[in-house]
Amino acid sequence: MTGIRTFGKELSRLPEQLPPELRGPDWVQANPVLIQEHLDRALAMPTGGWFAIDASSAITGAPRPYRVAGHELVVWRVEGALRVAPDACPHMGARLSDGHVREGRLVCPWHGLELADGKHGAWCPFEAHDDGVLAWVRLPEEGEHPTARPILSERPAVFLDSVMRMEASCEPRDVIANRLDPWHGVHYHPHTFKRLRVIGIREDRLVVRVVYGMSDRVGIEVDATFHCPDPRTITMTIVDGEGTGSVVETHATPLGAGRTAILEATLATSERTGFRRALKAAWMIRPFILKAQRRLWVEDAAYAERTYELRQSADRTSSPRIP
Question: Per the domain annotation, does 304 fall within a domain?
């Protein structure tokens, strides 16, 4: 794609001498052992017990059911505050997500039992957190050291956000492994990535130079890093070029055996004077961002599902190592 014209902030030059492991074709650079090493490092990190549930904007005052790590949950708001609890009435097990909220209390649809913030017998709400972009729940995990807040990468102070959620037949590690393989970008998503080159590999992150296509002949070139702040999250941060400071957080939340929710939060920022006007028109811009997010993840979910399928069926003694 040598005919692509790029615009935006000019980047610093590529390193004059790339290390040997970054000089070959993409299929050579995308070394399964290297990807596995980065994945193993991510999987060894603490989570604090937190799981991303959905976009903050998706949770309203009406009870809504979710499944997270095998737990059936009901999620709702009381005067704007996020609430998460088991989705089974302590009386006879009715689904509380089929009920309603009255004067701040969750009302069971079967017999009218009203539940507040505290315990009722064995029923007890979970710790919840709303960071303004995503809604979170903290669940008890064996061996985990709970933290007061989810472990997040640095976010821009001012941003236009968009959150996409979809489900896939895989495990969270397959979603993270997909993002730890940036080499597939141009080949698997030619409609979006016109050029992509890994220009650095550090112990905790990958550095890429990528051209996002605005059309067949025009694109925006940026440098970005990929790193994992916890085992179920990978963050892309633009570190040079248009939109420096913008982040894309990909969160993988286990639902049950072989089923994962993929939540991708894009937090776009810019130093351009027109960005403040763009924020006011966020309701018009957000659908276009969501469309682009979903288009990529329909394809990447298939990648993650294939990785999961191979790992499940591989003969470990004779097959290639699958992340």
Answer: yes
